[in-house]
Specification:
- It contains 3 helices and no strands.
- The protein is mainly α.
- The chain has one domain (about 10-55).
- It is elongated and about 40 Å long.
Amino acid sequence: MQTFSPRQSKPIIYQIDTVLAQHYGFTESELDFIINYDIKYRMGKSLFEENEIDN
């Protein structure tokens, strides 16, 4: 069985997003949108459930 743990890959994904943003000439706000979109939709519901418990 193969499993994936996106939480452990976040730093690498952010580096990739940053390099691609530089390549395509994205602004800081566009990069911020991409990173926040990543957190909200790619990392899934469990990430937000954990944050709600902590707050």
